[in-house]
Amino acid sequence: MSYERKFWGVKNKPYYFITLIPWHDQTPIAPLPNKPVGGVSQHNMFVMFRCAGCSFNAPVFDTLSHEYFHNWNSKKIFKGLQNSAWVKTASFIEGFTNYYGMKFNLRLGIITPQYYIDQYNTLLNSYYHSGALGLTSSQFSKIDMWKDLALERYPYQQGEILAHNWNATILSSTHHHASLDTMMKQLINGKNPGKSNLTFEKMDHVYKNYTKTSIFPQIQSYINNGKVIVPNKNSLGSCVDLVYKNIAPYTPGLDVHNSKQSNIISGVQIDTQAYKAGLRNGQKLLAIKHYSTKINDTMLLEVSDHGHAKVIHYQPYLSKLSQTPQFEMNAKKWKAEPKQCLKELSE
User: Averaged over 58-76, what is the pLDDT?
Assistant: First the structure.
């Protein structure tokens, strides 16, 4: 919190109260299944829910950084955009906040460079295999996204990728004299043209100061028309390489916790290899013969289906494998110049 206040040049920010509540399956307001941390933001306060027995680790700090950043990002900078379509505003209000929550924790040493890269790779994997990929903003607005966390997160993913891309573009255009940090500070300190609420036109004016290009073609293409956003190869600096891998998002294909507790299969996702292999809600779970957290490994579940025992085997991933952009550390460069590599990753 001190770092975020220093980042914005705030010296007289009032108190900020945080309460942490452990939650169980019966907790009235709790994170969704498979989301072990969540909460509710209030005025100068954040109520955090954390799964009972879970450690106080990186995801907790990611959430705290994200929520505290909203005091500037959504309540001040992007407040004027909130009358626009949700899919458009969420890209900037939530996506940019995700970007900075992770970036600040990297700069503070709370998370490692590898964790930071892994998290961005996970986001890219989810985005490129999202059921919303390619939908126009009009089509997306007709989806009941609140019933599907993966769909609800789609605008967040769009915004975070754009934040990485804009940062790389500004750094390159200004020979590293300015970054997305510079743009964000200019948007909040009143130097943007006009004194009324922020508009996309004002954002465009500030972005043009650094890149000589407009944001509107990107908003029209990626947000409005649903074109797939390609990550800038320099998003994570010169010591991290952009590669393409034949992968898909990991998922066990069922609600493992509830299925084990009740011995009845539940939470089966239709667009998974588990479903394709014959796993169905209501089957009796006899045994998990092999559990895996890797998409190239095999899950083995013994179930009883209408009184007939059988073993279902499948690879634990969503949708299907496809070429997906991912970032990898360049080991030689990190070994030769670790400080410079970290500096570029943190910019």
Answer: 78
Q: If we measure between CA atoms, which residue out of 324, 342, 325, 320 comes closest to residue 333? A: 342
Predicted model pTM? 0.85
Residue 2 inside a domain? The answer is no
- Among residues 254, 309, 308, 268, which one has the least CA distance to residue 287? 309
Residue 200: is its pLDDT beyond 60? Answer: yes
- Do 74 and 196 belong together in one domain? yes
Do residues 167 and 284 both lie within one domain? no
CB 170 within 8 A of CB 178: yes
> Is position 28 within any domain?
no
Domains: count for the chain? 2
Are 37 and 63 in contact by the 8 Å Cβ rule? The answer is yes
Tell me the per-residue pLDDT of 104-146, one tens digit each, with 9 for 90 and over: 999 999 999 999 999 999 999 999 998 889 988 888 887 776 6
Give ∠ CA 192-197-203 in degrees, rounded to 5: 45
Q: Assess whether pLDDT exceeds 50 at residue 168.
A: yes
Task: Say yes or no: 227 and 295 in one domain.
Answer: no
Query: Are β-strands 322-329 and 37-42 bridged in parallel, bridged antiparallel, or unpaired?
Result: unpaired
Ramachandran quadrant class, 158 (left: phi over 0; alpha: psi -120 to 50; beta: rest): alpha
* Domain of residue 299, residue span: 256-314
* 207 and 88 together in one domain: yes
Together in a domain, 233 and 293: no
Q: Say which residue the tokens 């410079």 belong to.
A: 340
pLDDT-above-70 percentage for the chain: 87
Q: 168 and 289: one domain? A: no
